[in-house]
């Protein structure tokens, strides 16, 4: 058993068979994660005491005869999810001293299934960003090149798994925050259907889009985590009451007879030649594995980013109204309560969060509501309709997860350039579809010498997670792209 490099499945199997103990996995991971993190800054806080206590509980339960699907699996948790007794900052100064009074349902289900909490991971403030650079606390590095971003907003969760500082992790995805960093860090990142996983205990960004999902080094491990956390939660009214089909153990091995939709509007000719070549090879591999490629059209594709940047800021301006210095988080006092609100919010929020609150407040203001927010909601319906029409012709849609490989720090100073990073992921989010990014090769960036990973985005109709993970699994097994790259910086940490 290799506690650092083994899959979640292998670790859980060893612990359940009592060939290994959760305690020995924890004792190996604790110093290793700290060493790797000295380079990566993936974690805002490591939680060795919680990890040890949980390992003891897991070993006791296994000794008593229980079999736990995630027994002894090291898990990193994005710091916008509450874990009882841990600082939960959402990457923001306004929550610098906030200690969670309860545990998020998704996290609790993983802990109940035997996962070991390694720590809380860095993120763009309130999950707003595509590079991790909007965190108020740290710059997480890409494990494949420390001069580059890991992607965002789930920066630390992607870097921790990609850099072998955790076996699996949790992220949240509103417009691409699991899929884009997964692509950048050579890992699988999976966003389930909106409503499939409880959001209780996830600090809200845009509530109609937010969804929790796993990062893992294989599709099968992502499936294992998903199976444990999916399903109705009485504490989240938007979680869907619909039976969850188990996915792990039901993943297909080939793509024979599968119709893969390639979106006409997602023109690969716009991409850098090396990136384009990688995606063309990925499509050819799908065909080689027995899939039939069919062209589908998403006439709304180019309106995705504009639509998202009305809906997401509108919801964020409302969700973030609660951070006012009264009940929790930062408070900067003033002569009266109004001044206290102003000073608290001015000091507590970073520039990108303020920008979103301004855009969102404007889009919702009377006189502009119909022109912006309402129109964006109507456009959103069109996305769902366009995808439904596309799925009449195919089983799964394949596209790039991101249009570039990981870029260098400070490379994108223009907010719009950063927003466009989610060009391929946002339409899928607006339609609420299950979607993932699976490693599909690498390209050497213009300003670099080292090949950097890329991810293939797959998306399927609502609530077809098993099919989606199955297609990804078949592709992954046949191509093994993740294994062809090793993170140079942390491999021997
Ligand atoms: N990059 C997008 C944004 O900044 C998506 C973020 C996310 O999915 N949380 O809003």
Describe this structure in words.
The chain is α/β, with parallel strands linked by helices. The chain has a domain at 8-229: Amidase signature (AS) domain (Amidase signature (AS) enzymes). The chain has 16 helices and eleven strands. It has helices spanning 8-16, 22-40, 48-63, 105-112, 155-162, 179-184, 219-229, 273-288, 304-319, 337-348, 351-364, 370-390, 415-419, 426-430, 465-479, 481-484, and strands at residues 43-46, 74-78, 116-121, 168-173, 188-191, 211-216, 259-263, 292-296, 396-400, 435-443, 452-459. An eleven-stranded mixed β-sheet has the order 1-3-2-4-6-5-10-11-9-7-8, with helices on both faces. Helix 2 packs antiparallel against helix 3 and helix 9 (304-319) packs across helix 11 (351-364). The protein is globular.
CATH topology of the domain at 8-229: Amidase signature (AS) enzymes
Average residue-wise pLDDT? 97
Which sheet architecture does the biggest sheet show?
11 strands, mixed
Name of the CATH homologous superfamily of the domain at 8-229:
Amidase signature (AS) domain
Shape: globular
The tally of strands reads 11
> How many helical elements?
16
Low-confidence stretches: none
Structural class: alpha/beta
Which range best describes the helical content: under 10%, 10-25%, 25-40%, 40-55%, 55-70% or over 70%? 25-40%
Kindly provide the name of the CATH class of the domain at 8-229.
Alpha Beta
Radius of gyration: 21 Å
**Amino-to-carboxy terminus distance:** 18 Å
Name the bound molecules.
Answer: glutamine
User: What is the beta-strand fraction?
Assistant: 5-15%
- Side by side, the strands of the main sheet go 1-3-2-4-6-5-10-11-9-7-8
* SSE ordering: HHEHEHEHEHEEHEHEHHHHEHHEEHH
**Second rung of CATH, namely the architecture of the domain at 8-229:** Alpha-Beta Complex
